[in-house]
């Protein structure tokens, strides 16, 4: 199969920016939908029909912009997406945002190594969390510290002698870390006597207090013992290296961060859910990000001094609440009007500068503008599904690590050894933990850990290249994560595919064998010729139900599809480490050749993210240093 779908000669990347002229636009806010209640006259009916048509047209233009971005940032065998020609090291963005002069509140540190970490209620086993969550802990200085320590903190420093850099619990494409986080919480002893908004500073493992907020905010709107985490992205950090494709990677990273937060919260008996009724403007005001100046998006990529592109784009807001809380609703309309007043709070700290010079990749900002979500205020929108246990077929595959051991030891494999094999049961077990719904259920609703953080039905599937799984023929397989899509997938893929359940596959695992073949070379070439895609036990491409989702729900689903792939990627990283091997996210792949291999035409399904799982090769030239206290450099 491999050679059949590949061009005989694979050209080298050209990576040469072609600068088109595109219309110039201002960075503006999306208006929140307004509702009229007066009785209509003929002309007001005409007006409202026209207004509706205009709104519909605007929505379609936004979807068109998301699609244009997506197609323009595809890598092809002959042409990589536009990016810088080489790296401008003098302007490498500082990976640590600070709010200068905001009070710095240190968080607590925790032991990471055995035998200090015993398996107790405080340190549950990784695999146990997929069955049930422990009883909820109260919010305290200690539990909040633990949440960040096990999700977004530094995990190590690395040095070769010539260069030194930090790594984090959450992964990031190119280790560039565009993702920032905010804690919005009620008063917490030893942190703040008033409810507050704070920025998380991972290098210091501390909170930067940005504002205190009205005392009624939490009791009026949220269940007891709950708080919020806001996530934002600095596109420039990722664009510095990856140019136009960077917007995709920032959103993968948001998904990884959501997954990391959901897992760390689960350890504390806390459930998490996106507060996705909020609009972009609400998020911006809640996190205090409205102070970044607006800028005029240029009509083409431009190099120069653009400090304004170091702004933070608010992505999402996560509600963290005690597992098992009684059902509750969120009054987005009232919340939004309260949050509107946050602009008048006293915001502390001035954002630091990250680079002296920049390249403004205009399409990123134009697309970020088009995919901003408006406020949606339907009642009953906030649904928390009951916690569902994931499927289990091989508990013994897990090596008995605690959750902290798994999340803090997670590392991307730079190379895979090409020899490690996985047994079939372990493979099936890993895939069972990648499914959105509980065991025995039809897969669609996202109700298992950590997918339950997401507020939509699963839209992402996985096409899997099995390379080294004992008891399974090498070949192409497909994991259907939303079984409502099964027939559509069968129709959309090559007619010669088998769609047969493989031998020994658990009944509740919707895994299908499509074709038997040695796909190692194929997988490697499709993932930008990277050996990691062929030298592991398996690699995969995450296939999103793409254009229908954007057309039906809106352009704002575009980043969300990437978030879903990031959460799935986070599970793959953790599963690999929990069974004693490793994994690596793969953002670099040739989009349309992957679609061609599967038989996808048009944009109904699109590959958004690749991944590899296997035995890592450790680079002995790189020395590891503890995360805290780190060397005193900005790396
Ligand atoms: C969205 C995403 C895309 C990535 N793409 C690649 C890739 O194409 N090739 C690769 O070798 N590593 C890739 N990585 C791995 C990152 O380089 C790695 O996460 C980063 O260097 C930090 O190291 P860590 O994961 O060990 O913390 C990717 C990671 C993420 C999160």
TrEMBL record:
<feature type="region of interest" description="Disordered">
    <location>
        <begin position="31"/>
        <end position="57"/>
    </location>
</feature>
<dbReference type="InterPro" id="IPR029479">
    <property type="entry name" value="Nitroreductase"/>
</dbReference>
<dbReference type="InterPro" id="IPR000415">
    <property type="entry name" value="Nitroreductase-like"/>
</dbReference>
<dbReference type="GO" id="GO:0016491">
    <property type="term" value="F:oxidoreductase activity"/>
</dbReference>
<feature type="domain" description="Nitroreductase">
    <location>
        <begin position="137"/>
        <end position="290"/>
    </location>
</feature>
<protein>
    <recommendedName>
        <fullName>Nitroreductase domain-containing protein</fullName>
    </recommendedName>
</protein>
<dbReference type="Pfam" id="PF00881">
    <property type="entry name" value="Nitroreductase"/>
</dbReference>
<feature type="compositionally biased region" description="Low complexity">
    <location>
        <begin position="31"/>
        <end position="44"/>
    </location>
</feature>
């Amino acid at each position: 199969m491999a050679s059949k779908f590949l061009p005989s000669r694979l050209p080298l990347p050209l990576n040469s920016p072609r600068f088109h002229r595109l219309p110039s636009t201002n960075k503006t806010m999306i208006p929140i939908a307004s509702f009229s209640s007066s009785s209509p006259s003929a002309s007001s009916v005409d007006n409202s029909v026209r207004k509706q048509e205009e709104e519909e047209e605007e929505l379609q233009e936004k979807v068109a912009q998301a699609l244009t971005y997506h197609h323009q940032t595809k890598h092809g065998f002959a042409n990589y997406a536009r990016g810088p020609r080489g790296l401008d090291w003098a302007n490498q963005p500082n990976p640590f945002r600070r709010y200068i002069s905001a009070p710095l509140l240190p968080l607590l540190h925790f032991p990471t190594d055995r035998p200090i970490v015993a398996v107790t209620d405080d340190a549950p086993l990784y695999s146990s969390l997929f069955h049930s969550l422990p009883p909820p802990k109260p919010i305290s200085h200690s539990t909040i510290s633990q949440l960040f320590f096990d999700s977004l903190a530094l995990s190590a420093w690395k040095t070769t002698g010539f260069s030194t850099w930090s790594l984090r619990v959450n992964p990031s494409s190119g280790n560039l870390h565009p993702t920032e986080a905010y804690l919005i919480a009620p008063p917490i002893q030893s942190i703040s006597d008033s409810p507050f908004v704070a920025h998380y500073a991972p290098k210091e493992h501390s909170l930067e207090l940005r504002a205190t907020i009205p005392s009624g905010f939490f009791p009026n709107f949220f269940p007891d013992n709950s708080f919020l985490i806001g996530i934002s992205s600095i596109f420039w950090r990722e664009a510095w290296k990856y140019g136009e494709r960077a917007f995709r990677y920032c959103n993968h990273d948001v998904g990884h961060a959501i997954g990391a937060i959901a897992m760390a919260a689960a350890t504390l008996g806390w459930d998490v859910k996106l507060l996705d009724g909020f609009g972009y403007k609400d998020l911006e005001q809640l996190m205090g990000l409205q102070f970044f100046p607006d800028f005029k998006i240029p009509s083409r990529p431009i190099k120069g001094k653009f400090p304004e592109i170091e702004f933070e784009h608010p992505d999402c807001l996560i509600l963290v609440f005690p597992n098992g809380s009684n059902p509750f609703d969120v009054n987005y309309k009232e919340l939004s009007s309260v949050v509107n007043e946050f602009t008048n709070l006293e915001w502390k700290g001035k954002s630091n500068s990250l680079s002296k010079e920049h390249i403004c990749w205009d399409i990123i900002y134009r697309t970020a503008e088009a995919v901003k979500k408006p406020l949606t205020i339907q009642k009953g929108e906030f649904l928390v599904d009951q916690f569902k246990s994931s499927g289990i077929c091989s508990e013994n595959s897990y090596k008995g690590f605690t959750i902290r051991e798994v999340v803090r030891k997670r590392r991307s494999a730079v190379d895979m050894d090409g020899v490690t094999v996985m047994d079939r049961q372990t493979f099936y077990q890993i895939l069972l933990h990648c499914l959105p719904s509980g065991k025995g259920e039809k897969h669609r609703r996202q109700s298992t850990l950590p997918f339950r953080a997401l507020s939509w039905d699963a839209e992402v599937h996985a096409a899997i290249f099995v390379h080294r799984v004992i008891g399974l023929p090498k070949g192409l397989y497909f994991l259907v994560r939303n079984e409502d899509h099964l027939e559509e997938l069968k129709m959309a893929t090559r007619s010669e595919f088998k769609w047969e359940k493989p031998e020994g596959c658990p009944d509740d695992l919707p895994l299908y064998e499509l074709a038997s073949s040695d796909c190692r070379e194929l997988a490697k070439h499709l993932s930008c010729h990277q050996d990691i895609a062929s030298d592991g036990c398996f690699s995969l491409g995450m296939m999103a139900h793409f254009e229908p989702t954007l057309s039906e729900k809106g352009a704002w689903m575009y980043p969300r599809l990437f978030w879903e792939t990031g959460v799935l990627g986070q599970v793959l990283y953790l599963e690999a480490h929990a069974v004693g091997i490793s994994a690596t996210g793969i953002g670099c792949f040739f989009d349309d050749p992957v679609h061609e291999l599967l038989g996808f035409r048009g944009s109904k399904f699109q590959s958004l993210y690749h991944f590899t799982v296997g035995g890592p090769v450790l680079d002995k030239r790189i020395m590891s240093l503890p995360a805290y206290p780190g060397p005193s450099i900005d790396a």
